[in-house]
Every structure is written in C-alpha cells, then in structure tokens.
Design a protein that fits this description.
With 421 residues, the chain is an alpha+beta fold. The protein contains 12 helices and 13 strands. It is elongated and about 85 Å long. It binds zinc ion (ZN).
Amino acid sequence: MTLMVCLFGVLAASWAVPRAVRRDWRRWWMSEIWHFTALLRGRGVKRRHVAARIRHHSTAALRDAWRLRVATPGSRRLLLAMSKPQFCLGTIAFGLAMIVLASHSLAITRAMLAPDYPDARQLVLISETGLLPGERYPVDPALLEYWKARCQTLTTLAGYTWNKPGTAWVTPNFFEVLGARPRRFLLHSIHEWRRATGEEPLGLVGRLKPGVNFADAQTELRDLAARFRHYQRPYPPRDALVIPLVGRIRQPLFAYAGVCSVTTLILLFGALIGMRADLRRIGRIRRNYWAYYCAKAVTLPLGLALFIWEFSRATSFTVTGGATFVAEPFFVWLVILASGAIVWWCLADQRGRCRACVRTLQYPVRIGSLGAVLFDHAGTELVCCEGHGSLYVPAVSSDYVQRGGWTALDSSDVHSEPVPR
Ligand SMILES: [Zn+2]
C-alpha cells in the first residue's frame, strides 16, 4: 500500500519537472523506488522498516522535483519578482481587498461604527445579573409586562430572543422601540422575525426618556422588580442590569482596535529606533527601506482587525448582550498570539531585505565553523541580487561572539555598518 501511494506521489510530482527531462526523471525515480523495495524485501527487512525507507526515498524524489522546477528560467523569474517589496505589499493589499469584498463592504464594522437605529444612544439592553460577576439572565415575560406597565424612565420596553440559524422571536412592539426593522441585531444576522410565544425568558431592549440616564433607569427597574417579587427571594439573587446598546455593540470594535493599534505602535517604535541607527551610522535615513517597513506595520494589524470583526466570532453576543466564551477569553488570547506573529514576521522579513532596493536577499552561504569560540565564527551570508550589499547573520546571536551587519557593495550606499571580524 505504502509503495503504491509513494509511486503515485512520484507520478504526481513528475508534472512539476520541466517537460524536457520529465519522462526520464519519472522512469528513473520509479524504477529506483521499485528496485529499492525489492532489495529490502529480499533481505527480509520488516515491513514497517521497508515502508519507512520507501517514504524517505519518495520525499527525496519530491525534493528533487522541486529543485528542478525552481531551477527553470520561468520559476527563477517568478522568485525574483516575489523578492520585490511590491509583491509583499501587493499581497497584503489583495488580502485587504478580499476582506472588503467578502464582507459586503465591511458590513459588521459599519454596523458597529454607526448602528442604523434612529436616536440609537437612547437604546438600552436590560437583563438580570446572577451570582457571578458578568453572569446575565434573560427576563421573565411576566416581569417584562410589570415593568412595561409601571416604568417611568423608559418610553417603552420590548423582548426578543434568537437562535443560531438566524430566526428571532420578538414581542409586538419590538420594531417600535428600535425605530427600524434591522437585518442584524446585536451584530447577529437575523433572516426571519417571528412573534414571541410569551413563555420563554427574553432579552430586553428599551428606549430611555429624554434626559434620563442609565443609572436612574436601572434603580427604578430594580425597585419595581423587588415590588413585583414581594416576599419571594429568588436564588441566586437577581438585579436588573441596564447597559447602553451602542456601547455594547462597539465594545469589540474598541477592544480589538486597541490590540492592533498597540501592535502597530510597537512596530513603528522599532522603525524609529532603526532610523536613528541609520542617522548615526550613515548620516541619512534609508527612506525606501523604512517606508516599506511602516507600510507593513500599518496594513497588517489593520487587516487582522478587519478579519476579526468581519469573519470571526469575536463579535458574537449572547441574547442578554453578554460575551460568549469564544468571543472573550479565547479570541483575546488568539489575537494576542496573532499580533505577536505579525511583529515577529515584520522584523524577520525586514532584516532579510536589501537596505538599498528592499528586495529579499538571496543565495545564503554558510561560513565559519560551528562551535568556534574565538575565531572563524559560524554564520550565514546573504547577498542582494542587484549587487547592493551583503548581510552577515551570525549563527549565535550574541554581542560577545559577533554581531551581524550589512556591508554595502554599491557606490550609492557606501557607508556600511562595520562588521568586526
Ligand atoms: Zn539591493
């Protein structure tokens, strides 16, 4: 079975090999693997060892096919084009354009920035607190009716609930409270609106009377709820909670914008340090080099933020306006990891680029010997294809051993960073 899979893999890989040598290459590798298998079996080697050796051999065939493909003039031209800074920035711009297109022109971001309800600042979400901080419960329909009849701080109140596929059940005056019939509520897309049955607990939305603040409404609702329940003391103890609808909707916007802005600021601070170093060493700032870095530092965190808002569940709320488990602890952790990855990649990519033309440096050459302490330190040297200079990257990153550096070979960038040898 392993033999068949490997032979099939080699057959598929042969299409990557240039046409002129493809037939010979395929025949050579297939007969090689076939012969090798027969030899091992003839020697009585265990089946699993034979399978492991065949897999190893097939991987070598795939590597060989890739090497031949990369060596063709067309692939080399493609790799050279990919080494340009325009390719990297173009890819990021393409990604941003795809996000805008696929998200219907950033529908959720727009909904967070400008909720399409008239006088949206007067809208509030009402739920009941639980024993633990952050715990929220929907409200009983009987209490909703009691509040509706007696409340003085709110013009009116309405109840709603929804399910995952996008069906919402609402009380008859729901759209009157909102002042619109939206396509999404609390950023949750709603495909069908139905009338609430009046039996299940509901999340509540209300509209404050002009001049009334959230605290007044919350105090009144708490007093009314205590009167409604008379002598009954529910366990866990419950209190009405009133929060602004717009503030709640915008919370993910501010939270993730904050994380991504910090990422950008860290990267821009790195640029500032680099530019100061340029001024100190060569007396001028390498404008193209740092412009490319700043473009990455701004667009990548922006792309991450837009992706989170539009396609992730970081913007999902429970019916009461609380955060889901996926939205808060899990996503915050994931976004911090992604921001770290962006910082790491931006710095790593920038380091491996030519200081003059900002292309990726090519042809890595290992020099020195590993383990040498005093002389002949190990490291890698990369050069710019246009001949602007070379970069020495020490294998051991320590100032004590040796520091890496850029050596300019071109007359336009003669002031190079000294590399002590
Ligand atoms: Zn260059």
